[in-house]
Design a protein that fits this description.
This protein is about 40% helix and about 20% strand. By secondary structure, it is α/β, with parallel strands linked by helices. It has a single domain, classed as SGNH hydrolase (Rossmann fold), CATH 3.40.50.1110. It holds the Pfam family GSCFA.
Length: about 325
């Protein structure tokens, strides 16, 4: 619940049944939100656009020939997943021209595709396959270009982070976009599992925030932890234990970053979902959040961060 007064005692939460978000009118309906992160970022984007709030990047503007390339779930869904702080930081660095992917930085894999069984895969974005290295390069350049267009147009930013288990490309130390063999891709021989900790993730989020600040000094930044649990863990432990540890690390990181940087705000989506209980918050898989719950989170986001007149006119 958006409120001018925070719950400071747990009994306040118990008696009210609400988690408070301090009101701070920092957005208007004219703001353009750059959204990036895990699958929960996609849910937030959908809820925002349903209220006629502009969101970027416009992934459907990415140029590619579907007979020669596969680009994640485009055009069916306008989203690209970047699950962890490493991949978000890398993507921002790349779109801003701070890191240039080498022309031979790809994996060759065998996979069923419209052009045949041989594919060239981008290690750093989920589900990007092409007929040849040249086609892959053209797709990567189109993705970076469209993301930069969105970045330049944005007046506000939302980043959602989901996990701390990452797979590191052995050839250069960069984090791969997805677990090995995802959608018939590579990574089994090319990567190694790394369970990241507080300092690494803190450095990644701080670097991402500071890159935004360098180009957009006045843009508000919203940070949030995805409430979507791990589908599986690659550690030798229970998946619930591993998921809880990862979410806890990320939650601590975002809290620290918000304390150290001005105009950076934490949206308690993780808390708003998990404290409602599994049965009330999640779909049948007990991982993905019910649409009604996402809508409620965005509703309170509007109530907290938009002026009263803007909040009351949402959806008009």
């Amino acid at each position: 619940m958006a409120s001018n007064k925070s719950n400071t005692k747990y009994e306040d939460f118990v008696s009210s049944g609400t988690i408070t978000i301090r009101k701070n009118s920092i957005f208007t309906s004219d703001d353009i939100f750059f959204t990036m992160g895990s699958c929960f970022a996609q849910e937030i984007r959908r809820a925002l656009t349903s209220r006629q709030i502009a969101c970027v990047p416009s992934y459907r503007n990415i140029s590619f020939d579907p007979t020669q390339a596969i680009v994640d779930e485009l055009p069916r869904q306008e989203h690209m997943n970047f699950y962890n702080t490493f991949t978000v930081r890398l993507q921002v660095e790349q779109m801003l021209g701070l890191w240039d992917q080498a022309h031979d930085d790809w994996w060759q894999v065998k996979k069923r595709a419209p052009w045949g069984p041989i594919c060239f895969q981008d290690p750093y974005r989920r589900g990007i396959f092409a007929k040849s290295p040249q086609v892959l390069r053209e797709v990567v350049e189109s993705i970076n270009g469209e993301m930069r267009v969105g970045f330049d147009a944005a007046t506000a930013f939302i980043f959602t982070f989901g996990m701390t288990e990452v797979f590191i490309n052995k050839s250069n130390g960069k984090a791969a976009a997805q677990k090995p063999l995802y959608r018939g891709g590579g990574g089994m021989q090319e990567t190694t599992l790394h369970v990241s900790g507080f300092q690494e993730n803190y450095a990644n989020v701080m670097a991402t925030v500071d890159m935004v600040r360098q180009h957009k000094p006045d843009a508000p930044i919203i940070l949030t932890v995805s409430p979507v649990a791990l589908a599986r863990t690659f550690q030798d432990m229970d998946v619930v234990t591993a998921s809880t540890e990862g979410k806890s690390v990320l939650r601590a990181v975002l809290g620290q970053v918000c304390r150290e940087r001005d105009n950076v705000h934490y949206l308690p989506s993780f808390e708003l979902v998990t404290y409602r209980g599994l049965a009330r918050s999640y779909r049948e898989d007990l991982r993905h959040v019910e649409k009604s719950v996402v809508d409620e989170i965005v509703e309170q986001f509007f109530n907290a961060y938009f002026s009263p007149s803007q909040a009351s006119s949402r959806g008009n």
